[in-house]
Design brief:
There is one protein chain. This protein is of the alpha/beta class. It folds into two domains: 154 residues, Rossmann fold; 78 residues. The protein is built from 13 helices and nine strands. The strands form three sheets. It has a five-stranded parallel beta sheet, sandwiched between helices. A hairpin with a 4-residue loop joins β6 and β7. The longest helix is centred in the last third of the chain and has 15 residues. It is elongated, with a radius of gyration of 23 Å. The N terminus is likely disordered.
């Protein structure tokens, strides 16, 4: 564990994510990301879809050349399988018919373990990024089961009473779309940060990272149209990812500023819900 005093010294650039050529990192997000990495705390990110919560984990891994393990959470997942499961079908098959020349020993539990993302992350010899994506989709008991695992960086294989401890504490990034409230004990163990939707100035910077040669006047018109759509009260307003995809389509089709001002091209790239598209056509 690194002390707060050491953390405040900043550390080397090799272990400090400062954004990348394709990811805009606000000053506040940069600071809390650094604190979470230095102090080995899970970083819980909230915010509407498309604001870069999930992408942050991948950009940290890419920029700092770290392996990444990702758990895509769903309502049916069990806490244990995030760490490991036993391949009971394969073990039963080997018990009945033999394991042949596979090298598996039916009496060895380890030969039939399938490691989950947490189990794989803990066994890496180098520090890894561990992403728990959309944790709010899981049941509260699953979240509770992860509390000690994430705090202690270890779990127990209950069948053989063996503890698996992380060789190096991973960088833990957790995302939530707030579909379900997370428990107070879970929140207490995390550093929490809400990624607010970028204002127009921040969005200009994000666009510049992805489209450095985009005409400035075309960019201004595109941003005006985009923020106008966001203010219309749609069920799913367009997000940053939709804007970037839309700008890419505009570039491929070589749409000019004049054409853009005369009408919104490819509305289905920005507006995804059928009800929102119908409302847009009625408003147009």
């Amino acid at each position: 564990m690194v002390s707060v005093a050491e953390a405040n010294q900043g550390g080397s650039s090799a272990g400090h994510f400062q954004g990348s050529s394709s990811y805009y990192l606000s000053p506040e997000l940069e600071r809390i990301t650094r604190m979470a990495m230095v102090l080995n705390k899970p970083l819980l990110l909230t915010g509407e879809p498309g604001t870069g919560k999930t992408q942050l984990a991948f950009e940290i891994a890419r920029s700092l050349q770290m392996p990444i393990e990702a758990l895509r959470c769903k309502s049916t997942i069990r806490g244990e399988e995030t760490c490991y499961v036993q391949d009971t079908v394969l073990r039963l098959n080997d018990a009945r018919f033999g394991s042949g020349d596979t090298g598996r020993d039916v009496n060895s539990f380890h030969d039939y373990i399938i490691w989950g993302p947490i189990g794989r992350a803990f066994q890496h010899t180098e520090r890894v990024v561990l992403l728990l994506d959309e944790i709010d989709k899981t049941e509260s008991d699953v979240q509770d089961n992860l509390l000690d695992v994430l705090e202690d960086n270890q779990f127990t294989i209950r069948e053989i009473n063996e503890t698996v401890k992380a060789r190096q504490a991973p960088v833990i990034i957790i995302t939530s779309n707030a579909k379900r409230e997370l428990s107070d004990p879970f929140l207490r163990r995390c550093f929490c940060h809400h990624i607010a939707f970028p204002d127009s100035k921040e969005m200009e910077h994000i666009i510049s990272l992805h489209f450095p040669d985009l005409d400035q006047e075309l960019k201004a018109v595109a941003l005006r149209l985009f923020y106008d759509l966001r203010q219309r009260g749609y069920e799913k307003p367009p997000a940053t990812s939709e804007l970037l995809n839309w700008l890419a389509a505009i570039g491929v089709d070589a749409i000019s500023k004049t054409e853009l001002e005369s009408g919104l091209p490819f509305p289905g790239i920005l507006i995804k819900r059928a009800s929102d598209l119908e409302a847009y056509r009625n408003q147009a």
